[in-house]
Amino acid sequence: MLAIIDRRAPPEAILNLMKHADAVFQFESDGITFNSISCHPDIFIYQDEYNLIIAPNAPLQLLEFLNVRMVKYIFGKKKVEENFENSVLYNCFSTDHYFFHKAGFTDPSIIKLNRHKEFINLPQAYTRCSLTHLGNNRFITSDKGIEKKLIQKGLECYYFPPEQISIIDHKNGFLGGTNGLCGNTLFFIGNIDLHKQGLSLRSYIENSGIEIVSLSNSLLYDGGGIIFIDEKRNTAALTI
Q: Is 235 part of a structural domain of the chain?
């Protein structure tokens, strides 16, 4: 199992992640997009169960990391840039039946890949930053607009306030950016029990059949999530 994490995440979190993954890539970029999200893998990488789509101007070090390990991927059509519209292109999310993003803000290659799924138009274009799927149509989010939209669609959604979620250059981060799901284990960059509503969130997640691993003994850190890649299941986006 490979893992990709923000280079600026707490060192303790990175070291502990190395105990669970075969290789860890510490992601960073410079001069491409906003500083606050410049090291966030989910700004440059779209992932679903079988596919990886990567921004064409993603750092070469990331491509080298994937190429050496023979991970299959394709490039998206548009570059990530330092403006809102082009910083959210790959920050979308999908399940077997649904595709989640804000209409008009998605890279065309991702739209084509998910054309057979029901599109759920969300008010938040930083979708993957804001949303975590626990399976069985159960989600957690730190965005009230997303919570409302998912409940309207008949999906179960737990709201977790963004206060006490740290992020570089901003007051609060997003919940989705603090974690990554690997199998039935949800890894957090930080310790959810330190949050004022952490115990309630822990209960909801564990009642969903998901195990929790807190990678560091600090407040939750929004680093654009943790992207796990199972080399054995990676098949590339062959349907485009």
A: no
> Which CATH number characterizes residue 67's domain?
3.75.10.10
Residue 11, pLDDT score: 98
- Cβ atoms within 10 Å of 136's Cβ, excluding its own: 11
Sheet holding 138-141, edge to edge: 131-135, 138-141, 156-159
Beta strand ranges found along 106-226 (DSSP E): 118-121, 131-135, 138-141, 156-159, 179-182, 185-188, 211-214
Q: Which amino acid is at 215?
A: L
- pLDDT tens, residue by residue, 195-215: 999 999 999 999 999 999 999
Question: Domain for residue 238, yes or no?
Answer: no
- Number of domain units in the chain: 1
In a domain, 91, yes or no: yes
58, 161, 226 from 177: Cα distances, Å:
19, 13, 8
- Looking at the domain assignment, is residue 99 inside a domain? yes
pTM: 0.95
Q: Domain span at residue 30?
A: 2-229
Each residue's pLDDT tens digit, 67-101: 999 999 999 999 999 999 999 999 999 999 999 99
Q: What's the DSSP call for residue 176? A: G
DSSP result, 192-225: GGGSTTHHHHHHHHHHTT-EEEE-SSSS-B-SS-
